[in-house]
Each structure stands twice: as C-alpha cells, then as structure tokens.
Amino acid sequence: TSFQYVHFDTSKELENFFLNGVAEIKSKIADGLSAAIYTQLTDVEDEINGLTTYDRAVLKISPESVSKAIRSLQIPGYTR
C-alpha cells in the first residue's frame, strides 16, 4: 500500500484518478481484498484532492460516475 498526495489541475484528471483507483480495487478483490477507503471526500484547507470543494458547493466528479464505479465493485448475487 502506498500513500500519496496528488494535485489535479482539472476535474477530469481527478475523475480518471478515482476511476483508476476503483479499477485497481476491483482487480484486488479476487486476491482477497475486503475493504478500501477513500479518505478525502472534500477539499480541506490547502489539500484540494477531494471529490467536492472546500465549501461543498461544487461536485468535482459527477455523482453518477462515482455511483457507477462503486456499484461495479459489488459481488454479483450478493445482497445485504
């Protein structure tokens, strides 16, 4: 596992980073990965890699894109 701070110049770069991360998580599920955490949902102070702006006024990635990516991680046939 690696930890990193990344700066994105555009929302598209952030979205690509997020979607690539979800794809990486998906590929590790078969190896036994059972949990993953995206720790910065909103921008804070001088860190601007959240999914929304500091004041939460702007969604920097479309909710539909995030939802579709997260739903792709669900195990077929699994229900809670």
Question: Which key terms come to mind for this protein?
Answer:
80 residues, mainly alpha, 0% strand, elongated
Task: Compose a concise summary of this entry.
With 80 residues, the chain is mainly α.
- What order do the SSEs take from the amino end to the carboxyl end, as H and E? HH
C-alpha termini separation: 28 Å
Decide which structural class fits the backbone: mainly alpha
Q: Any idea what the radius of gyration is?
A: 14 Å
* Model regions low in confidence, pLDDT < 50 over at least 5 residues: none
Instruction: Assess the beta-strand content as a share of residues.
Output: under 5%
Total strands = 0
Specify the helix fraction band.
Answer: 25-40%
The whole-number mean of residue pLDDT values reads 85
- How many helices in DSSP terms? 2
Tell me, what's the shape? elongated
Main beta sheet: none
What does this structure look like?
The structure is a single chain. This protein is mainly alpha-helical and 80 residues long. The chain has helices at 11-29, 63-71. It is built from two helices and no strands. The radius of gyration is 14 Å and the shape is elongated. The model has no long low-confidence stretch (mean pLDDT 85).
Topology overview:
Elements: H1 11-29, H2 63-71
